[in-house]
Amino acid sequence: MKIRQTIFIIAFIVIIDQLFKIWIKTHFYIGQEIKILGASWFRLHFVENEGMAWGIKLGEDLGKIMLTLFRLIAIIVGAFYIRTLIRKPAHKGFIICVAFIYAGALGNLIDSMFYGLIFDSSDPFTRNIAQWFPSGGGYGSFLQGKVVDMVYLPIINGIHLPSWMPIWGGKTFDFFEPVFNIADASISIGVIAIIIFQRRFFKKKQPLKINTSQ
Questions:
Q1: Is residue 12 part of a domain?
Q2: For the chain, does the N or the C end have fewer beta carbons within 10 angstroms?
Q3: Total domains present in the chain
């Protein structure tokens, strides 16, 4: 697989991801939700994630900066890794999967690095919508932006789990509860595809058999 093809895949995913996030930021207030085509299981629900996946936080401001720097280092290392895969060359399908994961990580990194600078805050109580490049500055500093999430797929919800179940007993089960974005979906697709097709991607080369009968 050529480097240009890989760059095209990454750029396409990042651009679509960013365009969708910017549209959500400039058209929705925090917490606003709409149903797509009237379907209760497919919604746009605007939330912002200050930390890692599933909304986990890593301390306060310093933790946020450290997390963003870690993502930046991972992106730099990932670029060299992709170049190595192409030069090797690795299986085309594996390179595509890695490109999906890389594009997703880069898409969320852009939010963390720059969104605090270019957007002001959105408030669910006043229902104000964030402004693009506000005159008073953004809601945060460099490396302290929040990741924009918006896709909500509550396909199964409201199932009450029996009390005898460990950990989750007595709670209400929703699937799929987390709100995510295109970048998250790209990462998930890449990881799942690698797991499913790992035997095809990492075939062991059969040793050459030397005919000694002659």
A1: yes
A2: C
A3: 1
Task: Characterise 31 by phi-psi region: left (phi > 0), alpha (psi -120 to 50), beta (else).
Answer: left
pLDDT digits (tens, 9 = 90+) for 64-94: 788 889 889 999 999 999 999 999 889 999 9
Round to the nearest angstrom and report the end-to-end CA distance of the chain.
Answer: 40
Residues with catalytic annotation? 149, 184
Q: To which residue do tokens 């301390």 refer? A: 59
Range of the domain at 25: 3-33+48-149+180-201
Kindly report the pTM of this predicted structure. Answer: 0.87
**148-159 confidence digits (pLDDT tens):** 999 999 888 777
Helix H segments across the chain? 3-25, 61-87, 92-118, 182-196, 198-201
- Whole-number Å distance between alpha carbons of 156 and 162: 16
Cβ proximity of 48 and 147 under 8 Å: yes
* Between 84 and 206, residue with greater pLDDT: 84
